[in-house]
Amino acid sequence: LGTEILLCLSPAEVANLKEGINFFRNKSTGKDYIFYKNKCHLRACKNMCKHQGGLFIKDIEDLDGRSVKCTKHNWKLDVSTMKYINPPESFCQDELVVEMDENNGLLLLELNPPNPWDSEPRSPEDLAFGEVQVTYLTHACMDLKLGDKRMVFDPWLMGPAFARGWWLLHEPPSDWLERLCQADLIYVSHMHSDHLNYPTLKKLAERRPDIPIYVGNTERPVFWNLNHSGVKLTNINVVPFGIWQQVDKNLRFMILMDGVHPEMDTCIIVEYKGHKILNTVDCTRPNGGRLPEKVDLMMSDFAGGASGFPMTFNGGKFTEEWKAQFIKTERKKLLNYKSQLVKDLHPRIYCPFAGYFVESHPSDKYIKETNIKNDPIELNNLIKKNSDVITWTPRPGATLDLGRMLKDPTDSKGIIEPPQGTKIYKDSWDFEPYLKVLNTAVEDEIFLHSSWIKEYFTWAGFKDYNLVIRMIETDEDFSPFPGGYDYLVDFLDLSFPKERPRREHPYEEIRSRVDVIRYVVKNGLLWDDLYIGFQTRLQRDPDIYHHLFWNHFQIKLPQTPPDWRSFLMRGEQNGSGTPQVRCPGHSIL
């Protein structure tokens, strides 16, 4: 284990540490640290928010002098416990080692395990022209030719993602299915449907059910829903993090986890003849921020907009002006964060990808117009201004020849653009078949019995938390659906009261399009389809993000869907503990 000295304090500086929080900067490295002193006990950490690397400052609302606040998104860290308090009950900060020397001076140390990609290092060999080719297909999907092997990342090439909220911005090359069928291996980074896309995989499985697919060993399995999806893939390989997977004598890859969402997000390093390609996909802090420097090609997300926040929120501060300003500021922060990351890692070539989606269904016109995304060209210009990194803005079917680009970045054949007249942007989407599938859930017989509500939330398993939600089923325009359900859930004791309880309680009102909420409920799917798919409208009082609640419904729901068959067989139509349901208009109860 390597140990790095991050900061030295003289005996005088140690003596001057005050009770509570102390900020320090190492003047020679420009890096910032926080000490927390409690009598003679000292704790320390980097002054860097786990979320997106923002800087902490004193939290003026904290009267106990224990917490600091991030300048980026107002995350708060209690330095006395090293736990984040906003979002509540969420993350822990990595602590540093404090060591006193014999003169009462102080050393701040970080224990650095060796980087896993440095094990059995290989020197880069010369690449022939055409030996390594990277072709962009759509969104986060790249087709890599590595010698005589082919590898594909995250194939989403047809249909929607997140229920019906996301559609492809780019028209995939017409031979995409042939390309997928010819792959020797496919890497799927995580379970979100713009990366693990069942409509695409279903098409592939009809032709090659045994295609080798590789995923990281995340806490929630990437393919947790495979059996229920009806897609017949028979060769899914779950590999441990941080270990080289040898494909042939020249090719190996290593999957790494995300520091913020280790339970679901991963990224990958692919190495061919000593040349590294780094794909950080959607990771917020890939590998906790420790990544290989000076790789040959790096690709990452850049666009933003992959969340229901703040477009789907109403009431309180969420005016149109506030949302527009927030989105503008947020995108700028993301742009600067990505540009800084690229500058720090200094790859030879950088490619922004995994942000090429559009909210093209007519019912989501409002989201499409307000959810402005970063422009890849703007990011690339920012990178070029700050470094000598070569950038590539990919178009579907364009191919980068790594050997040529490394030898001469100005080689006109280094990047072959798609032929003149190739359709780049989609202008029509086949909405109907996908909406029809969602719509079948609306008439499902489980929803004839109001006791489905108790059944569903009992299955979900979230309770003992002081939060009350009101769930309202709506039409396309988020007005109450005629005959739809409108009910309260009190998560403190998992009851379904007629009216809000008298005690103090946070409250959220969640309006959901009836087709999507019923499809999600019936199939035991994660609420990302609702939230990231823009299929809800939310109001909350007070305006607090309930991390435990959302994290449960977005990541931690049981991996087998509710047993609706036995629910119907029990015929508990009017059983005890039936939820109190307010029904507008004519009732289906």
UniProtKB/TrEMBL annotation:
Record lineage: Eukaryota, Metazoa, Chordata, Craniata, Vertebrata
SUPFAM superfamilies cross-referenced by the UniProt entry: ISP domain, Metallo-hydrolase/oxidoreductase
Keywords: 2Fe-2S, Cytoplasm, Electron transport, Iron, Iron-sulfur, Metal-binding, Oxidoreductase, Transport
Domain Rieske: 9-107
Any single GO CC term annotated in Swiss-Prot or TrEMBL for this entry: cytoplasm
Pathway connected to this protein: Amino-sugar metabolism; N-acetylneuraminate metabolism
Protein name, per record: Cytidine monophosphate-N-acetylneuraminic acid hydroxylase
Keyword Aminoacyl-tRNA synthetase in annotation: no
The organism of origin for this protein: Prolemur simus (Greater bamboo lemur)
